[in-house]
Amino acid sequence: ANGLDIMARYYPDLPEALTAGGALVSDAAENMQWYTYGGYRKRFHMGLKAALMSRPFLEYLIRQRTLALPNVTLIDNCAVKGLDATSDRQRVTGVRIERREGDTSEQVVAADLVVDCTGRGSRSPQWLAELGFAAPAESEVKVNVGYATRIFRRDPADPRGKDWVLLTPEAPKETRFGGMFPIEGDRWVVSMGGWMGDHAPTDEQGFLEYARALPAPDIYSVISQAEPLSDIIPHKFSSSLRRHYEKLMRFPQGYLVLGDAICSFNPTYGQGMTSAAMQAAELDDILSKSPGRVADLALVFFKRAAKVIDTPWQLAVGEDFRFPETTG
After folding, report:
1. 48 with 31: CB under 8 angstroms?
2. Are the CB atoms for 262 and 187 separated by under 8 Å?
3. What pTM did the predictor assign?
4. d(CA 28, CA 171)
5. How far apart are CA 229 and CA 190, in angstroms?
6. For the residues of 153-222, what is the DSSP string, one character each?
7. What is the DSSP-derived secondary structure letter of residue 245?
8. 244 forms bridges with which residues in the sheet?
């Protein structure tokens, strides 16, 4: 809910645009069909709105509104090859890019501030080492999670079609979860999987049998009758990874790291985009109070980002350590 609030602060028409496009924006706890530890959680009025939609739809709306800003330019379809810096390597002054179309020669994009939002595969630790700075310490929690996702047609007349369904395991004796969410276009998105290698199969019959074996019948009863609209797509996630930039005492000026590039969580808990939005809001707050702040920006921002990350990190790894096979 906090992620949606932050996005709506920057894009005030976003909730209306989501609803107009077929997303379901409502009180999350009133539409809850959550089975866990042997029973269903009681529905209640939480007073917090959440949005149910496909990720591509949300990202399309965000991208559309960002590119409409007069001072935003997008350079698409390119690779960042490295950082550009002053001769003493104390300040980052831009990035070196290589376009994948047209002129493919390496070019420099100059900047007062470069922010690495390249996700879990971030190369910032290597780039920092090349500039003579220490790479951050890392915390890794190995979970061996894997899940498979499929889109199904949703009958708008079905009274179940406004509910989101979550079946979560009683750890450690159960390892499987399932989620079924109504999204735009009268569709369901269904993901099922498990911890410690108990992953959902990607063949038709195996996927259905996996659903049938879940501790409650909600997902199986729908997808066994529904028309599939996509292939079954697997995703493997070996470990949650946190890079402790807040512990560094030295950092180049004009450079920051944000989002999954700092910390990527077990995605089954759905915390990544909200965590990144909260970090962006912290950066906005720092810069709006001290425009042009450069000298100690990284040290101040990373401390505040770490406070944002602490809670979702503890929630994720605390839950994952219910399984004795978890390491880290």
Report:
1. no
2. no
3. 0.94
4. 24
5. 11
6. E--TT-GGGG-EEEEE--TTT--EEEEEEEETTTEEEEEEEESTT-PPP-SHHHHHHHHHTSSSSHHHHH
7. G
8. 137
Number of Cβ within 10 Å of residue 224's Cβ equals 11
Degrees to nearest 5, angle at CA 159 with 153 and 160: 60
Concatenated DSSP letters for 251-282? --BTEEE-GGGTEE--GGG--HHHHHHHHHHH
Through-space distance between the first and last CA atoms of the chain, rounded to whole angstroms: 29
- Give the up-direction half-sphere exposure of residue 238: CA atoms within 13 A in the CB hemisphere: 2
Helix axes 297-320, 272-289, angle to 10 degrees: 160
Each residue's pLDDT tens digit in the chain (328 positions)? Answer: 999 999 999 999 999 999 999 999 999 999 999 999 999 999 999 999 999 999 999 999 999 999 999 999 999 999 999 999 999 999 999 999 999 998 889 999 999 999 999 999 999 999 999 999 999 999 999 999 999 999 999 998 998 998 999 999 999 999 999 999 999 999 999 999 999 999 999 999 999 999 999 999 999 999 999 999 999 999 999 999 999 999 999 999 999 999 999 999 999 999 999 999 999 999 999 999 988 887 899 999 999 999 999 999 999 999 999 999 999 9
**What length does the chain have?**
328
* Residue linked to tokens 């276009």: 185
d(CA 57, CA 8): 15
